[in-house]
Design a protein that fits this description.
The protein has helices spanning 11-21, 46-61, 95-105, 172-178, 180-194, and strands spanning 2-6, 26-30, 64-74, 113-123, 132-142, 158-160. The chain is of the alpha/beta class.
Length: 199
């Protein structure tokens, strides 16, 4: 089984990636297993940040790396929180604080359209000059209160266009089919197959 390091310590992401990649004989390992430090996300776009994270993890472990940079864009907030989604509520941000801040920002808004964005980057090694980059979106809107506990991040307040319930109320299989990360990973797997990196 080939090994790829995931440039994240997020358990929710690790679970999603592992479930999808195991079908292709790929074991996904969290960078925390190698004591890889977090790297400063100094990019101004999802693509830049994903490349920074993948390169850092590949360099530290000597393995091929996948990094994901994702976030939620709310139209009425000019695309915020965007690349700052994970640290939206400040220095000691938590998922709960981030959700609370976003709901507060939308208190008097009727227009609540939003989308999750996901950029995935795959590097064969730290110096890879031609990373595979895949991007996907998940369109929906922001609810008025958190619902469901099968998800992480902003899932409890994101209502996908395809459903009346939140992303956190969907089962894992349904979510993987529809989600920004699920779609980006499908694109990535196709690209990796085309390049002979997986079977």
């Amino acid at each position: 089984m080939s090994k790829i390091v995931l440039a994240s310590g997020n358990k929710g992401k690790l679970k999603e990636f592992s479930q999808l990649m195991q079908h292709y004989g790929v074991e996904v390992l969290a960078q925390s297993q190698f004591q890889v430090s977090e790297v400063a996300e100094t990019g101004t776009t999802f693509v830049e940040n994903a490349i920074i994270k993948a390169r850092h993890a590949a360099k530290a472990t000597g393995l091929a790396a996948i990094a994901d940079d994702s976030g939620i864009e709310v139209d009425v907030l000019q695309g915020a929180p965007g690349i700052y989604s994970a640290r939206y509520s400040g220095e000691n941000a938590t998922e709960t604080k981030n959700v609370d801040k976003l709901l507060k920002a939308l208190t008097h808004c009727d227009k609540r359209t939003a989308r999750f964005q996901c950029v995935l980057v795959y590097l064969r090694h730290a110096a890879d000059p031609s990373p595979i980059i895949c991007q996907a979106q998940w369109e929906g809107s922001i609810g008025f209160q958190p619902k469901g506990d099968n998800g992480h991040g902003y899932d409890p307040i994101f209502i996908p266009n395809e459903h009346e319930c939140t992303a956190a109320e969907l089962n894992s299989e349904e979510k993987n089919k529809l989600s920004h990360r699920g779609k980006a990973l499908t694109l990535l797997i196709t690209e990796m197959k085309n390049k002979g990196l997986i079977n």
